Amino acid sequence: MVDLGARIGAALRRERTAAGLSVSELARLSGVSKATISQLESGGGNPNVETLWGLGDALAVPFARLVDESPESVTLIRAADAPRIRSATSSYGAALLSASPPHARRDVYLVQADPGTPKISGPHARGTVEHVILASGAALVGPASAPLALLPGDYLSYPGDAPHLFESQVEGTTAVLISEIR
C-alpha cells in the first residue's frame, strides 16, 4: 500500500497537469495556498477534508480521485488501518473505502466522529446524493436546514448538492457514507 501523502501528491500533480493548470492558478481557483499545494504535491503535509474537497472542486474531479489507490482483485481495509483524513473544523474524519470505478459515479467512505462542532458541508456537484448508514453511536445527519437523528442501523439518503451536515451525538460514532452523482 502506497503512503497516503505520496498517493495524494501524485494524484494532485496528475490532475493539475491534466487540467493544464499551474500551481498558482490552482491556488487561485481553490483558495488553497501555493505553498500548501506544492507541499502536498511533494508528498508532504497533512491535508484536511476541506482542503481536498476544495482542490477536487477546483480541478472538477471527485475527492476520491485525489486519495484512492488503484483497485486490486480483493481489497481488505482493516478499520484500524483505514487512511483517515481529518476535518479542520470539527471532530470528523473520513476514510475512502472504495472509489467509484470508471463509468460509475459513487464513492464509499467510513466516517468516524465525536461530539463537538458539526461537520457542515457545502453543496457538492449537481446531482450528488449521499447515503448514510449509521453503524454505531448517534448522529444528526442530512440537510443543514433539517437534519435527522440517526441510530445504529438507520439509513438516510439526502441531496448532497445542497448544504448538509453530520453531527455526532455520542463519542465514537461511525457511519458508512456513500456519495453518488446521478
UniProtKB/TrEMBL annotation:
GO-annotated cellular components: cytosol
Keyword field: DNA-binding
InterPro entries registered for this protein in UniProt: Cro/C1-type_HTH, Lambda_DNA-bd_dom_sf, RmlC-like_jellyroll, RmlC_Cupin_sf, TransReg_Diox_bact_type
SUPFAM superfamilies for this protein: lambda repressor-like DNA-binding domains, RmlC-like cupins
Entry keyword annotation includes Oxidoreductase: no
Record keyword DNA-binding present: yes
Pfam families listed in its UniProt record: HTH_3
GO molecular function: DNA binding; DNA-binding transcription factor activity
Gene3D superfamilies found in the cross-reference section: Jelly Rolls (2.60.120.10), lambda repressor-like DNA-binding domains (1.10.260.40)
Occurrences of domain HTH cro/C1-type (ranges): 12-66
Name listed for the protein in its UniProt record: XRE family transcriptional regulator
Species classification: Bacteria, Bacillati, Actinomycetota, Actinomycetes, Micrococcales
